[in-house]
Predict the structure.
Amino acid sequence: MSLVIVGSVAFDTLETPRGRREKIVGGSGTYCSLAASFFTKPLVVAVVGEDFPKEMIEFFKSRGVDTRGLEVRPGKTFHWEARYGEDPNQRTTIKTELNVFEDFMPQLPPDYRKADIVFLANIDPDLQGDILAQAEAPKLVAMDTINLWIKTKRASLLRVLEKVDIYFANDEEIKMLAKETNLIKAGKKILEMGPSLVVIKKGEHGALVLGENFIFGVLAHPCEEVVDTTGAGDSFAGAFLGYLDKVNAFEKEEKIRKASVYGSVLASFVIEDFGINRFKTLSLQEIENRFRLFKKLVSF
Ligand code: AMP
């Protein structure tokens, strides 16, 4: 049982209708590892600059995240700036400053190479490819991306996609990557490009899981107070894969359905506050309670 997560550990500057936050801790690897940490002990691989707060690394450790793969380098931490409109599914990236990610050569520590699950969270697809080449015999490989890479590094992205089992994307990204406006057709096209499972995240409308022989729909928790949706997708993926790692099952449809619900549950918590704040107080009990509520929500 082991889950390696490669992604960004970042500073985010965010503006939502609920307020503005400058340089708070974020990043795809951050959200994903913290969400996964409620189910398993994830191993994170990323790079940060010397400006990254040591307390945050301690927080990762306190949540059981293995940080031996988190390099601290001279220079500045990756910085991303985004603005959200009234519709939280619509956001505009204002700035992406790669900083220490620019010349990052990711190295998997030797014992990380034997991981059962490798998750290539949103980072440059060339780096995703480098990491994947170092993994010895993963039972499950999953990836996520963002429209920046679909626009600027399509060929590299397609090369990685060929080698993964699960592709996580939001509806906009999946249509853009498949060059197809119908979501289901787009998902099916992706299934022909390598993955055997496509998880389409649809923000407040939940997610659609497309397998080769089944489709599963999961709702999003009906939240009245959405503060900041950053990281919802990464938290979904982290919980989904963390749960699969915990139950040591990679292909069983029933486990994939449950993993999707846990994904939606963790995403629903992270959006209740800015950045990763909600993860600081979240308990397993709250997660299980909301999981049970999800069951009620769809039983008829
Ligand atoms: P999500 O809201 O789940 O799509 O993830 C948002 C997170 O992705 C933010 O915390 C950002 O720091 C991070 N992010 C945004 N753009 C990039 C990028 N080009 N490469 C890596 N991470 C990014």
Notes: The longest strand covers residues 19-26. Residues 8, 10, 12, 26-28, 80, 96, 122-123, 146, 148, 230-234 surround adenosine monophosphate (CB under 6 Å).
